[in-house]
Structure formats: structure tokens, C-alpha cells
TrEMBL record:
Domain ParB-like N-terminal: 32-114
Annotated CDD domains: ParB_N_like
One annotated GO biological process: chromosome segregation
Pfam families assigned to the protein according to its UniProt record, in alphabetical order: ParB_N (PF02195)
Taxonomic superkingdom: Bacteria
Annotated stretches, region: Disordered: 1-25, 94-117
Name of the protein described by the UniProt record: ParB-like N-terminal domain-containing protein
Amino acid sequence: MKSSAKKVELASVDDLFSTEESRADAQREKVVEIPLSELHPFKGHPFKVKDDEAMMETADSIKQYGVLVPAIARPDPEGGYELVAGHRRHRASELAEKASERPGTMKGAAYDGYFSP
């Protein structure tokens, strides 16, 4: 083989047959269902979630309509997902005996220092 042939770089099949829009779409945040058992609050979470009358109303609403506004979670390097926002919805989903919640995952979010106390 000639030495000049070794320097040739070929595009991958994905690059040849996908659009810039589809590649950009793959990088966007998406709303996905995650089992409640895989969600946990971030360390040092400053807010208290109470099982009061308002929580019971939220649980009843989730029983009837499901979770309408997604929570925000990010992948946890130790496993599962760390809740960034939506802790009340998470607890209400548990009380409503739902198997999963629909949080929007934050793909590519930096873990260290992000929303840390």
C-alpha cells in the first residue's frame, strides 16, 4: 500500500447518512420515564418535603392525571439518577403508587459542583 493511502480518512456511515439536525437532536435533553426507585435527591438537598394536605392533593392529582410537569434529573455516577428539581412530584408519585415518573434528564450536565450546596 502506498504511504499516501494510509493518511486518507473516510467518513463513517452515520456521518454520510444522517443530517446535522439529527446529530444535534441526539444531543438535546429528552423527557424519559425513569423508575421511581432509581431517583434520589442530591446530597445536601435544602428543601423539606412534607406529607401534608397539599401533598395528598398532589398525590390524588397524579393518580388521576399522572405527572404533567416533568422533574429534572441527571445521571448519578454511583448509579440511578439524582433529582435536581421535582422532589414534591417524586414523593407524590410514591404516595400515588406510580411505578415511574417522567423527569427530563440533563444529558451532559457537569456533575461536580452543579447544583451542589
